[in-house]
Amino acid sequence: MTCRLDVHPTRWTRPTMLLAIVAVSTWATSAPAAVIYNNGAPQLVPVPAQGAPFADANLSSFTEVADNFSLKAGLNVIRDIHWWGVYGSGTKAPPADAFAIKIYNDNGGTPGTLNSVVSISSLNRTATASTITGLTMYQYDAVVTALTLPDSTTFWLGISDNSGGNSWAWVQSANSGGNAWQYSASNGSFGRTTKEVAFNLTNDIVPEPSTIALFISGLVGLTLMRWRRRTS
After folding, report:
1. Phi-psi category of 156—alpha, beta or left, where left has phi over 0 and alpha has psi -120 to 50?
2. How far apart are CA 184 and CA 186, in angstroms?
3. Which residues, listed in sequence order, are joined to residue 86 by a DSSP beta bridge?
4. Complete DSSP assignment for the chain
5. pLDDT tens, position by position, 5-49
6. What are phi and psi of 35, to 5 degrees?
7. Distance CA 49, CA 14 (A)
């Protein structure tokens, strides 16, 4: 979207200038979230060699799924997490999910020690128009407390749904590689799957304060020119 401002010095008044400053401030604080890591879109069609296109996360044998990621320099603050999932055959989406999100350190290509438990500020669940093996696919969008991680370092994003009785599963990513791991409650360890899972991480990018200050200073300067012409 292109925004045009009329900056002719004889047309600026004090109210106009104040409204412009408010507009700039609003634009800066409502900047859209930028994707800082993308692990691929959901795989809607099963891959014959891989079976059903999702990884179980709260069935009787597997209670959590984790997949690896790495952030770039300057894009290493996570504020939002987005992923996709389904509820097993014969079950319905619960009134409210009870997701637990964790970040694990890397241990030679496997989920290692726990780095942090992610604090979820708000969670939105949306039923999509897509189905996978007859199951409705849902999109989940979580706003989380800002989490800063070292860049160029491998971590693992682990998600489990603890609402109980709904057989939730994390949808597979269309990306190839097959690197997700499932945690087995029976033996207390992670085991590798042949799938990637679909998720992306985002962060609200706001214009540099110096850029905003420079723009506002220009507006103030134009207004002063107008006032001086009126009093001369």
Report:
1. beta
2. 5
3. 169
4. --------TTT--HHHHHHHHHHHHHHHHTPPEEEEEE---B--S-BGGGBSSEEESSSSSEEEEEEEE-PPTT--EEEEEEEEEEE-TT----SS--EEEEEEEESSSSEEEEEEEPPEEEEEEEEEEEEETTEEEEEEEEEEEEEE--TT--EEEEEEE-S-SS-EEEEBBSSSS---EEEETTTTEEEE-S--B-EEEEEE----HHHHHHHHHHHHHHHHHHHHHHH-
5. 444 444 545 555 444 444 444 444 444 569 999 999 998 877 655
6. -75, 125
7. 68
* Tokens at 107, concatenated: 């241990």
Query: Cα 118 from chain centroid?
Result: 12
Task: Judge whether 186 and 60 are in contact, CB under 8 Å.
Answer: no
Residue pair 75/162 in contact by the 8 Å Cβ criterion? no
Q: Which pLDDT value is given to residue 93?
A: 87
